[in-house]
Amino acid sequence: MLTLTQVEAAERAMALARWHYTLRWAVPLLLILVPVGLILGLGLYREAYQKFLLVASPFVGLLAGRGFVNGWRLASSAWMLREGGPTMAAWRAPLLLLAAFLLFDTGRSLHNLYFDPAYARADYRAIARQIEAQARPGDAILLNAPNQWEVFTYYHRQGAPVYPLPRNRPLIPERTEAELEAILQRHRRLFVLYWGDAEADPERFIESWLEAHTYKAGERWVGDVRVAVYAVPLAIADTPATPLKARFGEAIHLEGYTLLNNPLSPGEILQLALFWRTSAPLDERYKVFVHLYDANGQIVAQTDSEPGGGLMPTTTWEVEHLIVDRYGVLLPQELPSGEYRLVIGLYRLTAPEQRLPVWRGEEKVGDALELDRVTVRRLDAGE
């Protein structure tokens, strides 16, 4: 006959077994629900944050595995195999089909992850190497989404310093502007990696500020990362150094320009400010091209962009309001010494072959306007 102590011990053992059984289900379930609940509760269920649900995936696997094991055991139980009912193989067949489907779907997902370019992340290794090949002393790198820091600095471990901005979310304009000003005081050229703009800087404060204080020399896409290059001027041009009266199309007028650096060396960024106004509202978007031609009429360097680095499309221009439009043109490292023609023009965004005609006074001068001659001087020996 069991003593009271033995009964209590047996009850404690049964309670412990029940608690252990409950934990085997509850802990993985809890570790699935917590990240999902946090993302939903904080209003973060957006594409940029869905990656954080990955922390729950191991526990989804544990629950799925536990369910499969229990189902497999249940299929061999006496209750399931009662007389006249389905056989054990019949009960286990759906489990095997489900497991096969999950394995197939997981394998397909892994194949996409490793072999399908559509699912590949940006090649930060290539970005780092390209920047290092172009960088000069005094350059800097700015990451407009600070969580690029870990992956970018894994490949970029020396050379140009890296600044992650903004430091706060939501972005604090005063603090960000102060840091940008400090960066521009220390560096003459910036490589900026734009990624996740909608989350890090939805108002595009950093890009707009750089557009107003630097000269953008172009940009390129590497996967889902936009890499832009900016020249930092010693002084910003807010008025035209060379007044000019030219008309593009029926309503766009060029009031003048300022060419900040001439002569230049190969690898430098030509810094040009154009001063526009429109005499009538514009319902068409145009791109500005800035081309540098050699003596044979070949383009040796260029940049094409909507005004303001894409931030001031012509459809937003106010009538008779002066538009300050800054451009940088990166000169190739191998560009020979010589004199080059600086030419600008405008063309329709949707039809690049359709340039606007240009008038100087009453005279039509074609579909492009030569502004100046640019002198390039190589500093290496022999030239």
Keywords:
383 residues, alpha+beta, Immunoglobulin-like, 3 domains, six-stranded antiparallel β-sheet, 8 helices, 34% helix, elongated
Account of the protein in words:
Strands 11-8-7-6-14-15 form a 6-stranded antiparallel β-sheet, with no helix packed on it. It contains 8 helices and 16 strands. It is 34% helix and 28% strand. The longest helix is centred in the first third of the chain and has 38 residues, at 4-41. Helix 2 (57-75) runs antiparallel to helix 3 (88-115) and helix 6 packs parallel to helix 8. The protein has 383 residues and is α+β, with helices and mostly antiparallel strands. It folds into 3 domains: 4-119, no CATH class; 124-231, D-Maltodextrin-Binding Protein, domain 2, CATH 3.40.190; 242-376, Immunoglobulin-like (Sandwich), CATH 2.60.40.2550. The mean pLDDT is 87.
Write the layout of secondary structure elements.
Elements: H1 4-41, H2 57-75, H3 88-115, H4 124-134, E1 139-143, H5 149-155, E2 162-164, H6 173-186, E3 189-194, H7 197-200, H8 205-213, E4 215-222, E5 225-231, E6 242-248, E7 252-259, E8 269-278, E9 286-293, E10 299-305, E11 323-330, E12 338-348, E13 351-355, E14 358-360, E15 363-366, E16 369-376
Parallel strand pairs: 1-2, 1-3
Antiparallel strand pairs: 3-5, 4-5, 6-7, 6-14, 7-8, 8-11, 9-10, 9-12, 12-13, 12-16, 14-15
